[in-house]
Request: fold
Amino acid sequence: MYVYNLIKLKSIVTALAVGLIVANSIPTNSAANVFAQSNPKIEQENHHVRSHEIEIGVDELSDDRIAYNLNSYLVRDVASNETIDITSNYTNETTIPGPTIIVNEGDEVIITLVNEMGWGFPGVHTHGAHYKITSDGTLKELNKVSDQAASPTKPFTFEWDAANGTAGSWPFHDHTIGRNVLGKSMDGLETVGLFSSIIINPSDGKVNALINGVPKQVNVSDIYKDYILYVNDDVFWGTEIDYSKGGKHTQLGTNPTLTAPSNSIVRFNIQSIGNEFHNFTMDNIEWLSPGTNKVIKSHVIGPLANHVFTIEANKNSSYYDNSTINLLGGMKGNFVVTNSVGEQATENSINREAF
Reply:
């Protein structure tokens, strides 16, 4: 894992610039998403469609890294109380990135976080979803209410609400474990591995996409793969979710090669983790700027920001950070289109209602 020591002035400039980037990159019709991300005191909805009941562990890896792992994942229909166990869609190993959570607007998420290290106080702080201040995933010094983290002897439960208006792809990360002798720091440890993503699909089941150069709405159920690319300071970390394999989650490592059948619909979820700004770019590929019909082929993304787009896979490409120092350093991966998927996506028999 690559960790940088930034001087105080750089941290201040970065924090100010993040606010400017976010304010100028989110379309005006996405104000609800901004509100959801910035106001944790929103009361949760009382009428949920599904409950995602998840146990996540925190453990140490080699090279001084720490990461999340998935112990169990149940999806319960609130009305019928019918439960589906989708734990097998995930690896049982501790990985970077951690497990991706996929829900619909109207669902609730209940995460029990277990400290498997025997030291420290890891937590989970999310963007996008609504939650009460008691599930902020921060320390009392910041939230003024309580320390919200898992101790070595006591798990901690977080409750999130994927309310209407929260659709999008959002990062979640540690905000409590710290590195000082008291184990207390508001900075958290997302830069050494404690990060992942929650994808909240819209309640109407449709997303904007660029298909053969034409802006269209497509069904979420027609998405063949989700790619989640985490832009760290000098490397991409990748995860893919393959819906042709029942929603199988696979961690892809660093600067991964992404593959998709020709003519399949794929969604890119770009999450920024770390302290730098990056110009995410793809050769030969264009997409829609979120919330608009503007066609773009690159996007500047700052710390803990996100960028999501959906396209039809019909060209080989490469993706990279279009800054000289990171490009020379190898911050680049490939997107490879294989044989045609034909009707496979529409014939897929998986139960997408579980996600």
